[in-house]
Amino acid sequence: MSSQTQLALEQAAPDASLLSRLFAASDQIMVKKLRNNDRDWARKRSKHQAGVFIPVESRDSGFFPQLMVKEREKPGAAEIREAFFPTVWPQVGEERTSHLVHYTSKGNETHLTVLPKAAFADLLPASFLVMGRRKRHGKHFYECLTIDSGSDDFDLLRDLFGLKADFVSDVFEPDSIRSEEQGKVLDFAGEVIDAWLHGKIGTFAASRAAIPATVDLAREAQVIFMRERGLTKIDPFFLEKPGDDLRTLSRTIEWNLFRKHQHRKYAVDLVRLVMGETPYKPSPAEVIRRLIDKRPEIDALMLSAGQQRKSRAGYSYEHHIEAMLRDGGIPFEKQVILESKKRPDFILPSLAFVDSGHADAGTGLILSAKTTLRERWKQVEREMGGRSLFLTTVDENIAGNAIEDMASIGVRLVIPESLLKAKETEYAGHLNVMGFGRFCHEFVKPYLSSWK
C-alpha cells in the first residue's frame, strides 16, 4: 500500500476499519452516491422503488454477474434481465441474496434490490453505497457498506478514491489506485531519503515539504481555475454558475493541492520522528525498534493530520468567496464583531450601512459561509440581530427538515447551482434555497450603486 493511502487510513476514525479492509481485500469496488429514492424506500412505505438505482455504466462494467433473461409467462413481453448474488453487510450483521434487475421496457433502468433496510434508513442526503467484489470458496460475493455523508468515514472514502465534488458513480480497481499513488510518491521519497542521508532533512522540510498558508493555497487554486477557464478574474456576475465554481475551487482544486502538500509534509515528519535528524546506518532491527518506540508519537502525528485537514476546509471556502466578492466589485467587511460577540464571515456592504437606519439599510445583508453545516447552522441565528442573513454552503447532506427549520428563523440558503434539483439532495422545493448566481444577481447587483 502506498504511503498516501496509508496516511488516509491512519487519519481515519476507528469505524473506518471496515472501509479500509474492503479496500485492501477487493479486486473491484463500486462507489455510488445515493439518490433520495435510493434511501427513501427504507424509510417510507409509500415509495415504489425498493432498492438502489444502478447506472448503466456500472451495470455493464463487468463488476456485477452477467444478467440473464428471465422467463416470462406472457408471450412477447418486454425482457427482464436479472442476476442473483450473495451480499454481506457487516455494519448491520446481515447476509442477503441480492437481486440486480434490468427492466428493458423502461430503457436502461436497473435496480439492486433485496437489501437490508437498516443499512439505508438513517442516512443523510448524498450518502454512499460502497460494494467490494471479493472471493470466497472460489466464487464472487459482494461486501457492502453505506457511508453516511455526514460521517468522518466520508473523508476517508474521498481520499481513497480521489472523489471529485461532482462525483456520482464509478467502478474502481484498488490495485490500479495503489500503483498510481506509488508512482506519485516514489520520486519524492527518493528526495526525502537523500536529504536525510546528507543530514539536510530539516532544511529539506522547510523548503520542499511545508504546507502553504490557507490564503496562499487558495490563491494557487484560483490561478489554476482561471488558467483552465481562460479568465483574468473570478467575477460572479460573469460566471454562468458561480456556486458550482466555488465548489470546484474549494472541494476539488484546492483539496487536491492540499492533499499533495500534506502528504509530503507528513512523510518528512515521519522520517524525522522515527529516524532523527542525524544520518547513520541503521540495521533492520533498529528501524523496527524505533517504529515500536515511537508508536504513540506516530499516532499523534497522524491524528493531527486529520484535524488540520478539517480545520482548513472552512477557511478555504471563505477565501474563495472573498475573491469572488472582490473581483465582482462587491463592497464588504469581513469578520466584524457584532453586539452578540459573533463574527459573521461577511457583511455587505458594511455593518455601519446595515445598522444605519436609512431607508436603504435593509438592502444590506450578512453572508455566513460554512463548508459543512451539520448542526452548526444554528449558530447563525445569533448573528442575525434582525438583519437579513444568507447562509452559503457547498454541503450536499442537509436534510429537508433542517432546511425548513432554517426558513422558520429567516435564514436563506445559498448553494451551488447544480445541487438545486440534484436527485441526491433535498434542496428542491424549498423557497429559502437559491443558487449563488441568483443571490448575486437578485440580492446584490441591484443595490451596488447605493452600497458604493
TrEMBL record:
Enzyme Commission number(s) of this protein: 3.1.21.4
Provide this UniProt record's keywords sorted from A to Z: Hydrolase
Q: Tell me, what is one Gene Ontology molecular-function annotation carried by this entry?
A: DNA binding
Q: Which SUPFAM superfamilies match?
A: Restriction endonuclease-like
Record-annotated Restriction endonuclease type II EcoRII C-terminal domain positions? 301-429
Q: Name one GO biological process term.
A: DNA restriction-modification system
The protein in question is named Type-2 restriction enzyme EcoRII
Instruction: Please name the source species.
Output: Komagataeibacter saccharivorans
